Amino acid sequence: MVELPRALRDAVGLYPGSEVEITESGGKLIVEPVPAASSETTGKRTIAMEAFLAKRMRYDGPPITDEMMHQAILDEAKQRWDSVQRQWDKGIDENPVD
Question: What is the pTM of this model?
Answer without folding.
Answer: 0.35
